[in-house]
């Protein structure tokens, strides 16, 4: 619960509070230290996908492989998703979070097993400190299984967001082919490892915060899924850990940020890295971000491919199902240590 009597943070934040409620205050050792953050200034690669289907194909594959290996994050332009569609989905998200409290609460649930739900922070049932965000999270593949659960207000939500989901899925599948190829695997290798595939989306809403130095929108974490495609509005907030320093990734209009999740780290046998990132907040403006999380189906078996294992590069992880992994992630919560170490073969085996 965001504060006494209010289920959602936005309704607390806009009630005129001058100090954040105590349940949002991070311990001194775990605060953003905003003055020590670097501006990205090109340090997160920006890759032009226009060349994927032409004579520059191998160059772009090389750039993607290098970004996955060195950064775990990259930005893409000329990705094929129309500018109008991008601005439209951001507008719809903003309209949703501006709806009256009673209308928004029709979608509220603190049950993480619900496939469409509005909630706040991360896992309000288990976390010790709350995060400064509200979120609408929903499943979107296969679309026909889930669209009827989505909000019906704003009126165009289901139609327009479904079109956006289809377009982003097309982009993801192109990127997965490129990542497979960059590892020296068949282009359809990762696609074939995902079972029936899963796609979830979130619309994150970060209200203005009177004391942004004391809390996070989301604390540092890695993504448990395969790959995340992030759309953000024009308000900075995303930060990525690089060489021990937090780097602010400021928005570039009509680009997406792509980050490697834990499952690609496993499928690359640790060649590619799932890196820590976080969301910070500010006192002036609200912020919206819309991540698409692409993941294996729960029964898909994930593990390092035999093609990437030899005497010099033994398997770093045992095989596991994605359902097993996600359950551990959810129970553990957003902490700096990701769950991957739990899936390494025991050093004591003989």
TrEMBL record:
Which InterPro entries did the record assign? DIOX_N, IPNS-like_FE2OG_OXY, IPNS-like_sf, Oxoglu/Fe-dep_dioxygenase_dom, Plant_2OG-oxidoreductases
Q: Which domain of life is it from?
A: Eukaryota
**Segments traversing the membrane:** none
Name the keywords, alphabetized. Answer: Dioxygenase, Iron, Metal-binding, Oxidoreductase, Vitamin C
Instruction: Give cofactor(s), names only.
Output: L-ascorbate
- Supply one GO molecular-function term: dioxygenase activity
- Using the record's annotation, list all stretches that form the Fe2OG dioxygenase domain: 197-296
Under the heading Pfam families, the entry gives: 2OG-FeII_Oxy, DIOX_N
Question: Which catalytic reaction applies to this protein?
Answer: salicylate + NADH + O2 + H(+) = 2,3-dihydroxybenzoate + NAD(+) + H2O
Report the SUPFAM superfamilies cross-referenced here.
Clavaminate synthase-like
Per the record, the GO terms for biological process are: defense response to oomycetes
Q: Which protein family is it in?
A: Belongs to the iron/ascorbate-dependent oxidoreductase family.
Q: State the PANTHER family in the record.
A: OXOGLUTARATE/IRON-DEPENDENT DIOXYGENASE
Q: Could you tell me what this protein is called?
A: OXOGLUTARATE/IRON-DEPENDENT DIOXYGENASE
The organism of origin for this protein: Salix koriyanagi
